[in-house]
Amino acid sequence: MTNSPIGIFDSGVGGVSVWQEIDRLLPDESIVYYADNANCPYGEKTRIEVTGYSVKATQMLIAKGCKIIVVACNTATSQAIDCLRKTFDIPFVGIVPAVKPAAINSKSGVIAILATAGTLKSKKFNDARKEFSGNTEVIPVEGGELVDIVEKGLQGTKQSEEILRRHINPLIEKHIDHLVLGCTHFPFLIEDIKRITGDSVILDNPAPAIAQRTKYILENEKLTAYPGNKKQIEFFSSGNIEALKNLVENIAGIKPWMIFSKIEIY
Ligand code: DGL
Fold first, then answer.
1. pTM for the model
2. Which end of the chain is more exposed for a tag (fewer CB within 10 A), N or C?
3. Domain tally, the chain
4. Ligand 1, from 8, 11, 181: best to mutate by most atoms within 8 Å of Cβ?
5. 71 within a domain of the structure (yes/no)
6. Which domain, by its residues, includes 226?
7. 125-157: per-residue pLDDT in tens?
8. What is the pLDDT of residues 198-220, one digit of tens each?
């Protein structure tokens, strides 16, 4: 057992959707969350750039004493996790769009994956799509514009609704019954999406499964925190720390064991 923290990183505030599930499932664990807001969005960047940012994020989290790294970003996982696993001797948990459960559970036989350009063009995603789609039609939809909506806290606005309608209305016409949230920013748009889809479409959010996977690895490697650990949650941002703080405040409230700081990584 060890009280060392779990490290989580994303290009920005999106990975907070994963942090929330991990914190809920593993309430004794200390966590260091790093939002690389200065370089957000990753979705439009090259694989080499995303890999470079991911290596720096990992180095920073290891320097903070983390015992496991959760790559809470589909884009970084799709493009960089193989390199991270080869480079660093620490367990990693990644996140890729949940094609398999959506395809298995689809009744209409048509599902859509809403993700960044970087994720949709990656080999990791396309391999999963080939392996798990079976007879289900899988429609990839590039939702990079929506990352900015969440980064700016514009959920519930006309602008958010306009972009979402443009993306989702054609999918409803194609009778999708599952929409995979293939970017960790998108769970923060669930209410806006549901206003458009109603109950006719199931939204697949892989964050709870990532929390389960993290718990499984910690238990397996005997890395869990001691029960009753006086935990600390440290949030770092390379850019706009206020955006991160506002989101955490809105969804979980600011607690005495939370610390927010800006950090520069070279
Ligand atoms: N949250 C990220 C993801 O899951 C990436 C968003 C971005 O930086 O483009 O893909």
1. 0.97
2. C
3. 2
4. 11
5. yes
6. 6-95+208-262
7. 999 999 999 999 999 999 999 999 999 999 999
8. 999 999 999 999 999 999 999 99
